[in-house]
Amino acid sequence: MCRAGLVLAMLLLMGGVHAAVYKWVDEQGRVHYGDRARGDSAREVKIRPRSGTSHVPSEAQRRERTRRLLDVFAEARREAKEQAERERQRRAQAVNYCVQARDRLHSLERSSYVYELDRDGSRVALPQARRDQAIAEAEAAIKRWCRG
């Protein structure tokens, strides 16, 4: 629970105490509650105490609340597990791309001639400018995929 919500909850629980409560929004857009007005946006919040005795939930209500809370926790665990799996797959893909980029650079730097296939499927030697460009592209891929 956020701090402002905790303060408001405490104030609500104090039912019999009749102190003024103010709500305001700071420059960062955060909502605050307090016993003194701060800033031009502060407004008094009316708090109505509960009438009668405090409500004690039945056993069925407690079980239902517990079930809902457990469902929320289970959903959070499932989402965290899925996120971890997506991250693991992303890292594995990055390692694969890193290996491919290093292999490409190694081939470009070690070969006397670098070839591409033309429309007929025949090999055509690349001019030096195109070879230099391919090396720069492979180096950029290594920087992108090979972290560390």
Index terms:
148 residues; alpha+beta; three-stranded antiparallel beta sheet; two-stranded antiparallel ribbon; 3 helices; elongated
Describe what this molecule looks like in 3D.
It is a single chain. The protein is 55% helix and 12% strand. With 148 residues, the chain is an alpha+beta fold. The strands form two sheets. Strands 2-1-3 form a three-stranded antiparallel sheet. Strands 4-5 form a two-stranded antiparallel ribbon.
Could you give the topology of this structure?
Elements: H1 3-13, E1 21-25, E2 31-34, E3 43-45, H2 59-110, E4 115-117, E5 123-125, H3 128-145
Antiparallel strand pairs: 1-2, 1-3, 4-5
Helix pairs in contact: 2-3
- Quick one: overall form? elongated
What is the H-and-E element order? HEEEHEEH
Biggest sheet statistics: 3 strands, antiparallel
Count of helices?
3
Stretches where pLDDT is under 50 for at least 5 consecutive residues are none
Mean residue pLDDT: 82
Instruction: Report how far the terminal alpha carbons are from each other.
Output: 39 Å
User: Whole-number radius of gyration?
Assistant: 32 Å
Total count of strands: 5
Beta-strand share of residues? 5-15%
Widest sheet: strand order? 2-1-3
